[in-house]
Amino acid sequence: MKTPSPTTDRSGSDHRVAFQGDAAAKARYVRAMFGRIAGGYDRMNDLMTAGRHRAWKRLAAQLADPSSDLPALDLCCGTGDQAFELARLRRGPVLAIDFAAPMLRIAQERAQRAGMAGAVSFQEADALCLPFPDACFSAVTTSFSLRNVAGIAEFIAEMRRVVVPGGRVVTLDLLGAPRGLLAPFGRFYLSRVVPLIGRFVAGDSDAYTYLPESTGYVPSAQEIAVLMEQAGLERVSYRSLALGSVAIHVGVRPL
Ligand SMILES: C[S@@+](CC[C@H](N)C(=O)[O-])C[C@H]1O[C@@H](n2cnc3c(N)ncnc32)[C@H](O)[C@@H]1O
């Protein structure tokens, strides 16, 4: 196991607790951290990806098969980007859940401002224990959440449980530094530049040190595909983006 470097910043929190194997402690850390950084989260995402995360979320929404009228679900929705992309493409309603109330408040304000409050609704819930019956959503999406949930296999199993037979489960995630010739630059960017931007823009270098270190705990694209198959999804495929540092996976619940 890696030994993450210590950090000191205004938050006074320590991201190392997220990597010590205690699921409840990780959930508490992640929930509190996103609660703390909610106000600067959208700006940080735009800065860190040069705005590319929006196009990736649009693609994930397209891959979720927008033709159904049934409700769709976005998990770990944060400030709502992925849910808004789903709602732009679908006739049916979109429900989005997260366990960090400050992220949800921003999502709700954004929905009001964009005139989308009728199309998307937000609810506070734990993605590892969803308060929904089996097979009630036409598609289930999630973006940038795998490294944050306390159990990836349990999370994918919940997605499979609530999607209808024939419905799609779509995940979009950051896997780590780009591969190939650009790998050293990618690692430098994630481990040095991102925490600096976090410190000066979000005032929270602990949160943005957690991010690059947490990517070390995300499975590879192939391993995510295997986890989806093991959860009972079929026709699993994925697309690599951003020089292999980001991937979108799609799996279908068998009929
Ligand atoms: C990196 S943010 C992603 C937000 C949004 N999907 C996006 O792409 O911008 C991860 C989100 O996952 C949420 N989260 C992590 N674990 C969760 C859980 N068990 N249940 C619900 N939300 C969770 C956090 O609160 C946070 O808002």
Note down, in words, how this protein is organized.
It is a single chain. By secondary structure, the protein is an alpha/beta fold. The protein has one domain: Rossmann fold (3-Layer(aba) Sandwich). Helix content is 44%, strand content 19%. The chain has 8 helices and 7 strands. It has a 7-stranded mixed beta sheet with strand order 3-2-1-4-5-7-6, sandwiched between helices. Helix 5 (152-162) links the parallel strand 4 and strand 5. Helix 1 (23-49) packs parallel to helix 4 and helix 6 (183-202) packs antiparallel against helix 7. The longest helix has 27 residues, at 23-49. The termini are far apart. The model is unreliable at 1-10 (pLDDT under 50). S-adenosylmethionine binds at residues 27, 30-31, 34, 45, 76-78, 81-82, 98-100, 103, 126-128, 143-145, 148-149.
What keywords describe this structure?
globular, 8 helices, alpha/beta, seven-stranded mixed sheet, Rossmann fold, 255 residues, binds S-adenosylmethionine, 7 strands, 19% strand
